[in-house]
Amino acid sequence: MIEIIIIVLLIFMLIGSIICLETKDLLSSIISITSVGYFGSVIFLLIGAPDIAITQMVVEVLSLIILIRATIRMDLTTIEEDRDFFGLIGTLALIFVFFILGMEAIRYLPKFGTPSFTLNLQAPSNRYLMNGLKETGAVNIVTSIILDYRGYDTLGEATILFTSILGALAILRVYARKRKEK
Amino acid sequence: MNNNEKGMSIIVKTVTRWIKGFIFLFGLSIVLFGHLTPGGGFPGGVIFAATFILITLAFGKEYVLKKIGKTLASELDSLGALLFLIIATLGIYFSGIFFSNFIEKTHPTGNFKLFSSGIIPLCNISIGMKVGSCLFMIFIIVSVVRVIFEDGKGKLITTEKKDKK
Amino acid sequence: MIYYLCFVLFLIGLYGVTCKKNIVKIILGLCIMEYSVNLFLILLGYRKNGIPPIINKGMEINEFYNKAVDPLPQALVLTSIVIGLGILSLMVAIAIRLYQRYGTFDITEMKKLKG
To answer: Which residue of C has its CA nearest to A68?
Structure first.
């Protein structure tokens, strides 16, 4: 039953992403990509990941605001593009090759509904689930993983976030400094 | 009200004035109860950022830059990262392992309590502070900077530079 | 079936990155690829009739172990989503800068970018 719901939501995501890429109006394409994110959030809620659902929902709102502030302020909101026919054929052939290889790869995955940690008893998730409450005291196992077992990952994440703001600040500041020198 | 002209209409401003505290408290509860319920530092921090972005959109940039400013946001950002590192390094001092959980892990009366899992709530608070101020700063950087066309050439003007002049 | 649809979503994002000429569309294509990868990682950890990896009061640890979904991909994706927002804003900053320099979002008209 839940698989059918997930398949329907995924088809909606596909439709939304195709609309997002093919429409001429930039505002409607940004809104349709936000709808894709919200469908993803509903799927996360259905398959037992409420942490991810909350985060995805809130991040969608912020990214919508940032994208709109970035693009709508500019004067041109609609686009026209002519297509290079041979280039399109070439990239579609490349994507088709990717598709065939991916089909081959997906056949080797475990079936949907049986995660790999149940097949392999050496997997770390077994220990996290069994001893997580005893070893860290946190009831939410996801929090105990990101802040206790794998704290280095979170430290790296903080570093990446810091670097990305520094990069954005540096990129948007260069022009002002050039004007001062002139 | 002095700045009636800037920002949005008076309805939006009044609703924002009522609602901003509740949104902030919701983010705070998501951060503080991150080890008991779904949530944690990341979504809570994004909700903090959303509060300030709501104020920015409703009252205009100048109001927020005067009240909060980019320097406070960057200081909070660095403070959150530093707090996280200090907590991680104290683990070496107490038990010899980076990121070790050195505070007592279980509450005397059992689990499912707010102060129950050692350093995890403290780490959640620092991560929430860092993510919130970081995303707010990203929003300021992207949105305050704007393009003004003079003679067909784009010029970059920030509100900060105006203040300096 | 579900994995195949997820993979098709990834390919749509790849099409957007490679074929589109507007820089905003390229950014949106990267966003779609990111969604599909996050979704795929979470779907890999799903267990049939699984419960979220949060222990309820009064639940035995063995019963929880036999029912819960995989928590490890969730922890990795949680950081990845927030990083995605940071990277999105970095790309938006680059797009704004290019717009100020060239006055357009079309990458074929930016002459100096051609290698």
So the answer is: C92
- Given a cut of 50, the residues of chain B with pLDDT beneath it are 1-3, 147-165
In three-state secondary structure terms, B149 is: strand
Report yes or no: C7 at the A interface, CB cutoff 8 Å: yes
Predicted structure pTM score: 0.84
Domains of chain C are 2-113 (1.10.287.3510)
Q: State the Cα angle at A122 between A119 and A123, rounded to 5°.
A: 70
pLDDT at position B69, please?
65
Sort strands B153-157 and B146-150 into parallel, antiparallel or unpaired.
Answer: antiparallel
CB B77 within 8 A of CB B130: yes
Instruction: Among A3, A11, A142, A173, pick the best mutation site for testing chain C contact (most C Cβ within 10 A).
Output: A142
ipTM entry: 0.86
Query: Which A residues, 127 through 156, put their C-beta within 8 Å of a C-beta on chain C?
Result: 128-130, 132-133, 139-142, 145-146, 150, 153-154
CA dist list (Å): A82 to A52, A131, B101, C21, C27: 39, 59, 59, 9, 19
- Mutual orientation of helices A85-106 and C2-19 as an angle, nearest 10°? 150
Fill in the amino acid letter for A114: T
Q: What is the pLDDT of residues C48-95, one digit of tens each?
A: 888 888 887 777 788 888 888 888 888 888 888 888 888 888 888 888
- In this complex, the chains that touch C, judged by 3 or more CB pairs closer than 8 A, are A, B
**Which residues of chain C are within 8 Å of residue A17 when distances are taken between CB atoms?**
9, 12-13, 16, 32
* B164 contacts: CB under 8 Å, gap ≥ 6: none
Please choose, from the candidates C76, C61, B144, the residue with its C-alpha nearest in 3D space to the C-alpha of residue A169.
B144
